[in-house]
Specification:
Elements (H helix, E strand, L loop, with lengths): L13 H10 L5 E2 L11 H12 L12 H15 L8 E5 L3 H10 L5 E5 L5 H8 L3 E5 L11 H7 L4 E7 L11 H14 L2 E5 L25 E6 L11 E5 L2 H12 L7 H13 L1 H22 L15 E2 L10 H12 L1 E2 L1 E2 L11 E4 L4 H17 L1
Parallel strand pairs: 1-10, 3-4, 3-5, 5-6, 6-7
Antiparallel strand pairs: 2-8, 7-8, 9-12, 11-12
Helix pairs in contact: 2-9, 3-9, 4-8, 10-12
Amino acid sequence: MELAKKFSVQKPSGMVRVFQAIDKMQDVLNLSIGEPDFVTEPDIVEAGAKAAKDGFTHYPPLQGFLETREAACAYWERHHGYKSSPDNVYISVGGLHIPWLAFGALLNPGDEVMLIEPYFTPYEAQIRGNGGVPVGIKTREENNFAPTIEDLRAAATPRTRAIILNYPGNPSGRVATREQLEEIAEFVEERDLFVLSDEIYESMNFTGNDHVCFANIPGMRERTLLAAGVSKSHCMTGWRIGYLFAPQNVINTMCVLSSFQTYGVNTLSQKAAAYAMNTQDEKVKARAKIFGERMKAVASRLNQMKGVKCADAEGAFYLFPNISGTGLTSEEFTWQLLNEAHVAVLPGSAFGESGEGYVRIACTLSMEDLMKSMDKMEEFCGRI
C-alpha cells in the first residue's frame, strides 16, 4: 500500500532509532528514556479506580473536567504564584497533544516558529504538520543553552510568529535565569509574538532558585501558552494527562480541533490527576530530591572520564555531557556505547545542530544501576 507523499520523506529521528534498537537487545542499561522510574503512587491509582466505580465512564467535557482544571490552577498558584481561572485551562492527551492543537489553532501556512536548540525533537514535526516553518536558534553551553536577544533578532523575519521555550530543558537539563527569560520577553514584546512555554519539568529545579514561570514575567501572560502536566512530577506518564493555560479564544479553538481527534481525555485519568495535584506535594518534592542526588553523582562520574565534561545538574532529570573530547561525533559515541557496552544514551544531534558534541543522559534508573552504567561508560571511554 502506497503511503501519502507527505510521509515518503519521513524518517525516524535519532531518538526513535535508538529506542527501536534497544527493543531488539537484552541487558541494556537504558539511560535514554525520559520518564521517571517510580510507579504512580497507590492512592492515585485508587482515585482512578474509584472514579470508574463511581460511574465516570462516559464522554468527558471537551475542555476537561472542572475538578481537574481547578486542581491545575491550585497547583500552579501554590507552587509558582501563577493565578488562572479554570476557564483558561485545557486538559490534553499528555503533554505532546498541547503543541499540536496550539499550533493548529494559531499558525497560518508559512508562519515561522523559533526553536531554541537543543530542542525536544517532536516540536519540529508538530510545527511542520500544522503548516509552520521551524527555525532553529543556535545556543551555547556557556550561556545555559539560552539565546541572547541578539541571537533572536538575527534569526527573526517578517514571518516569525512564535517561539517555543522549555526550561528546565529537555534534553539539556539546563535552567534559564530570570534575567535571560526577561531578555527573551523583551524580544517577544518587540516582535509581537506568542510563546509556547513548556514547563513540564517545573518541579525539578536544582539551581537553588525558584522556578520562573514565563507567564509571570510582566507583559507575558497574554502572550504565553503555559504547558505542563503530571507525567514527570507525579510519575503518571502512562495516564496521558497534560494541561495548558491559555487565553479563552485559544482554548475554545483547541476544543473544536480536539473534537475531530480524541473527543475529550480519558475520564479516569483526569480524576486521578486531579487527586494527584491536590494531595502529593511532599512526595513530588521528595522524588525531585532523589533525582537531584542521582544527577549530582552521575555528573561527578562523567567528569572523571576521558574526553568527557559535564556541567552541574540544574533541572529536569537530564545531564547533557560534552563528549567531543573523545574524538567521536554524538551519533558515533551513542551507537558504539550501545553496541559495545550495552548502555543507551541519546545523541545530542537528534535535538538540533547545537546538540552536536553532546549526549543526553536520563538519570531515571536506581543509583545502583546508574553507577553500573557509569562503570561501563568509563571503561568504554578509556578504550577510545
